[in-house]
Amino acid sequence: MKQIIYTEKAPAPIGPYSQAVLAGNTLYVSGQIAFELSTSGDLKAEAQKVMENIGNILAEAGMNYENIVKSSIFLKNMDDFGLVNEVYGSYFTSMPPARETVQVAKLPKDVNVEISVIAVQ
Length: 121
Hints:
Blueprint: E1 2-5, E2 20-23, E3 26-32, H1 43-60, E4 68-75, H2 81-89, E5 98-103, E6 113-120
Helix pairs in contact: 1-2
């Protein structure tokens, strides 16, 4: 009924959670971050890496970006919305998923952006 999805091509969990859980035909992907790039000052590269991590997890479950039906974007600074939105949008050329974007007080490992998704086969 519930299958844990894990790939070496995305960061290992830093707590008691899974990269993703497949329940029936729905995949719940935990928030992805790019802490190795968070201090580089290159927010575009950080957002790109987050989306690549998501893509690698989707692939492990036999899915791709077209399977995403819902996204949640968490930003350290809402002033970064335009840049993150540009990177994020490049992955959805048609029929983008539902989404919310919120600014939060702090993110794990002090990153600038975290994105979680729900995908359906």
